[in-house]
Amino acid sequence: MKLIISFLLLFFVFSQCNSYQCGYYSCLPGHTCTNTDGIFKCVYNRDELIISQVVTNSWSDPTNGPSVQIKVNIINHTHRTINNIIIASDVKLNNGQIWGATLNGFLIQLPEYVSIAPGKNHSIGYIQNGVSPAHLWVQNVNYNPV
User: Fold this and answer.
1) Pairwise CA distance, residues 136 & 43, whole Å
2) CA distance linking residue 47 with residue 39, whole number of Å
3) pLDDT for the residue numbered 3
4) How many CA atoms lie within 13 Å of 22's alpha carbon, on the beta-carbon side?
């Protein structure tokens, strides 16, 4: 009886986890794990944009603990050019540890000059404390006229 209760308790705990395994890393809710030729990615998919995050480096130091370097690809999945792209994060990233964008609290703003044509992409990057990428989602995007 104790074995059954222990099994049920473990099943419940694992079913309540907020992330799932993707290669050596964990994807957060709202992301899909993809594996292409052994390269694992956590992908967030929306009709207008696909946000793909790849862990390009990881390390640990005694002061800050584990950290990961992330490359973010923002892919335009529409038939129109898009701009004024703002991406939200579930954690506050460090302003000095992001490139290709600026931070305003939990919002990642791509530069005004960035326009992404249909089927094209734009890349940014950041460093995150921990072992997995931040949960990113589209906060704002403008579509240019056809």
Assistant:
1) 10
2) 24
3) 54
4) 24
Residue 88: closest CA among 143, 40, 30, 39: 30
Q: Give one word for 131, left, alpha or beta, with left for phi > 0 and alpha for psi -120 to 50.
A: alpha
pLDDT for the residue numbered 100: 95
- Chunked into runs of 10 residues, the chain (146 residues) has average pLDDT values of 50 42 72 70 73 94 93 91 87 89 91 94 94 86 71
Interatomic CA distance for residues 93 and 134, integer angstroms: 9
Length of the chain: 146
The token duo for 71 is 């490359």
